[in-house]
Design a protein that fits this description.
The chain has 15 helices and 13 strands. With about 425 residues, the chain is an alpha/beta fold. A 6-stranded mixed β-sheet has the order 7-6-8-9-10-13, with helices on both faces. Strand 8, helix 8 and strand 9 form a beta-alpha-beta unit. The longest helix is centred in the last third of the chain and has 21 residues. The termini are far apart.
């Protein structure tokens, strides 16, 4: 192995060069401190379901799983383990270390862009690629050993600004979390607005998971004449945002809110159940807009059929950390489950290609093979790069561009 001093450059253990096992996938998932446990357990179960489909050669969601280009892959099965990132960059670094020590040959995740920014240099250094199901920041475009099955924020910013302009609005403000995702995303929306002839928005930032900072941002918002608000926030940020907005009368029809797709009615319902947001405040969010991309309807429908056949006990059997899932989750899974399923499928297909080692892939790294993968998946046609996108960025041609209005009664809108 390499000398320990090379490992220490990235604050890794002396075992940082553990040889990868092509049969092992590590899934980096925020299973604790996430604000909505059911959502993330569904995401994790979807990732593990992809491995189960791969091993069963079940092509019902990913037809490529039932196809093979080499004899050696016929007996090639995979295993996957969950590693809790605790929704923080530090937690993601620890999850990465444990997954790498366990011999993972490819990693699914992490979710937050701030976490992926911490991990991609490590993945590049160790040739341990990451395929994220949630990191959308453009800061991560063209980074070695990093790919993603979700649209970038640049793709989403175009949808947001199109929605604002479509309503005939010219003036708006952005309230955003001050992290590696929220700040660049706010800048992209502002730049896109300027290019489309809209007036420059005021960007009001707050610190992640800091209720007082979030409340202060809303107080600043309340003093502005503009009444259109774009909100870029995570679930843990919502109590401070919405409780303060309600107290100041900003949820009573005076302001129109357009939220990012990083939270949903189901997320708010979980916060209500936890006593962090009142029923009264939650009800005032009825009709809030969300703009962005969504999985292809037909592809996601096939995935939902497969996911609906699962039970809480089956998910728990795949990993004990998934205990306590509610049966209703399986009938109507969050849309992000499709991206988690496809991220895992991407790693699985790349590892199969590496195992087969045919003439087209013999001298390529796992990271290089990942970016050559293309398949029909749970979210639509999955491929990477192409016109206007970085080498590891998801091609969004098969995804839907949607503007949705919240319906709290059924948890729709994710």
């Amino acid at each position: 192995s390499e000398p320990p001093d090379r490992c220490s450059r990235l604050r890794m253990s002396e075992r940082c060069f553990t040889a990868p096992d092509l049969h092992k996938i590590g899934v980096l998932m925020p299973l604790t401190d996430n604000g909505d446990p059911q959502h993330w357990k569904a995401m994790a179960c979807a990732a593990l379901l992809a491995v189960a489909h791969f091993n069963a050669r079940d092509g019902s969601v990913v037809p490529a799983f039932s196809q093979s280009s080499g004899v050696s892959s016929l007996a090639f099965n995979l295993s996957a383990r969950l590693y809790d990132t605790a929704y923080t960059p530090n937690g993601a670094v620890e999850a990465f270390r444990v997954a790498q020590d366990a011999g993972s040959a490819g990693l699914v995740g992490p979710y937050r862009s701030a976490s992926s920014i911490s991990l991609y240099p490590r993945g590049d250094f160790l040739d341990l690629p990451l395929v994220s199901y949630g990191s959308t920041s453009v800061v991560l475009s063209n980074k070695p050993a990093f790919s993603r099955t979700v649209p970038t924020d640049e793709d989403s910013a175009a949808v947001v600004v199109s929605a604002i302009g479509g309503f005939g609005w010219r003036n708006f403000n952005i309230v955003h979390v001050n992290d590696a995702w929220g700040s660049p995303y706010a800048q992209l929306i502002a730049a896109r607005a300027a290019a489309c002839g809209l007036n420059p928005p005021l960007k009001i930032k707050f610190e992640y998971d800091d209720e007082q900072s979030a409340r202060e941002a809303v107080r600043t918002l309340s003093k502005q004449p503009q009444t259109i608000v774009v909100l870029l926030a995570f679930v843990n940020d919502l109590p401070g945002i919405f409780n303060e907005a309600d107290a100041l009368g900003l949820l009573s029809g005076s302001h129109a809110w357009i939220g990012s797709r990083s939270f949903s009615p189901a997320s708010v319902n979980a916060l209500v159940d936890a006593g962090r947001i009142s029923n009264t405040t939650r009800d005032k969010l009825e009709g809030m807009l969300q703009a962005g991309h969504a999985p292809n309807t037909e592809s996601f429908g096939l995935f939902k059929q497969s996911f609906a056949r699962l039970s809480p006990k089956e998910c728990e059997a795949m990993d004990p950390q998934l205990g306590g899932m509610e049966p209703s989750t399986f009938a109507d899974p969050p849309e992000n489950t499709a991206y988690a399923f496809d991220a895992t499928a991407t790693v699985a297909l790349a590892l199969r290609e590496q195992r087969e080692g045919n003439l087209t892939s013999a001298n390529l790294s796992t990271a290089e093979l990942l970016r050559r993968v293309s398949f029909e998946g749970a979210s639509g046609a999955v491929s990477f790069g192409g016109e206007g996108h970085g080498a590891g960025d998801r091609n969004v041609a098969s995804l839907s561009s949607e503007l949705r209005s919240w319906r709290q009664e059924d948890g729709a809108g994710e």
